[in-house]
Design goal:
Elements lengths: L10 H17 L1 H11 L15 E2 L9 H24 L18 E3 L4 E3 L7 E3 L5 E21 L6 E3 L4 E5 L3 E4 L2 E4 L7 E5 L8 E5 L12 H13 E4 L2 E7 L3 H15 L4 E4 L3 E7 L28 H15 E3 L3 E6 L2 H13 L5 E5 L4 E3 L2 E3 L5 E7 H11 L15 E2 L3 E23 L4 E3 L4 E3 L4 H18 L5 H16 L2 H6 L3 H27 L7 H22 L1
Helix pairs in contact: 3-9, 3-12, 4-5, 4-6, 9-10, 10-12
Amino acid sequence: MPPRLPSNPLTPLRGIIKESRQRIEKAGSDIRSVGDELRGFSLTGHQALTTAPVVGDKPPSYGVSDKNTLLYQLDHLMSVLKQLETHLSEGCKIMGAPCDCCLVPGTTIYSNPSITSIENPGSTQVLSHTGRKQTISQHFKRKHEGVIQEIKFGYTNIPLKVTPEHPILVAREVRRRQKDRWRKLGIEDTQLQWVEAKYLSNRDFIAFPRVSNSTKEAEVSFDMAELLGWYIAEGSKTGNRITFSLGKHETVYIEHLRQLICRVFDTEPKIYTKPTVVHVCFTDKERTKFFEQVGHGARRKRLPSFIFSLPEEKKSAFLKGLISGDGHVGKFSIVYTTTSIELAYGLRLLLFNLGLLHGLSERKIDKSILNGREILPNGPRYDICLAGDSARVLADKVGIDYVGGKRTVGNHGWVTTNYVYLPVNSNRSIPYIGAVYNLSVEEDESYLTIHGALHNCGKHALEARTYAMETISIAARIGKETSIYQDIASWVPLIEEIDTPEKVMSGEYDETYRKESGTASKFRKKVQSMITALKESEEDCPGCDEMRETIGAFIEKKKKGRGGER
């Protein structure tokens, strides 16, 4: 007959749990700092993100052992020391701060709030992960040989290509597969954390800030806002003349435009009918200068920056004119098409500001025939598509007749007060040899692409000191050597002192750079040996020996009790 189980088998564990709780309480803020390092800082809202969360890989839970915590710290410390070693060996001449977090050429980023390229940022400011304008302090370029991550997100067919270590602002593990579709588990802005590109999975969502403009509202009427939308879609300017060109069949829109011009400029426009088009024209020497700020020509049109300072009602009036001119309202979607990349990317900012999920696609234009003439394309087109709830909300805002068919599906993104979240669809490594680029941005230390927020280039000397200082208390808690981390923390200020543009250009420290590269190499090898030794050691389990002895004694006592009964 098998022995009976103890009537209360968990009794010997209670003492161990109580003791563990007391140890955690005694550690106080130190143990919480370890938790923050593992999981990323807990954010309490939009303003909390003005300081970037901790950069890290897939974070373990709070329940990991001290040994795993130490391994996590040492792995990052060794990576940073490797970067410093390379940077110093090059005499600090390649870039102002060593950085392995870069983007491939051709990546477009948001400036103020127009766009620029990562390889040639013409603007001195960029939009950050908080939606604020921040100043670029440095621009970096280096050669990369190896792999990069090609990440595809929902709501765009334009992939993001970055080096594997580049940190991206995401909410992690917030959806799961349910049969043949995804189920969202819920997202709050407090879940945001910086995660290296190589660790992103299709359970994650990238964060895109709902950019607004805190400047004073521009003095623009509702009619003027709508007319500006019409101008971007169908207008052109020649001298002091403004011309809107519409199809002959668009009689309702032609009359509506005539009335708008009469109300805004207090003048009766002239209407010219051609074989395939109708021109609605008016001339005003002073007030037509207003339209110059949105650019000339279909491929150079853009949103004026003041649009973001307008109240929602006037933004909707602007979108009404824009969509009426170049948009298409279908059975299942509302689509706006443009050949201007700057206009397309600007509309993405505006629609996300209004909390409207949408797709942004780049399409190749095929040659076409018009009245017997062959029309050759000179670049791609950009389609902005709203479907499901977003299309219905937009239609309601701008007064467009749209119902949406029964086949219209719900959107797969997520909108909160401060962010729009786009799902990660795929993430793969591909070979790459060539130049890569990055920026260093003041204060928020981040910048924005059409996909979402990316971290800028970090100061690896500062990171080395931070990781070393944080590791001291963790290593001491499990009785491991700490002198190596103290040495690294003491060594870093020397590197910061000589890693300046002035001292690099002087040439006086070339020998020092090579010497300190060797120092970084020695530190790295020492950390590597400690990682190896730690992995080979027995798994630590604070209190496990005591727990085994207590349970063993309990079982022996019960055995003796059963023997006496016989």
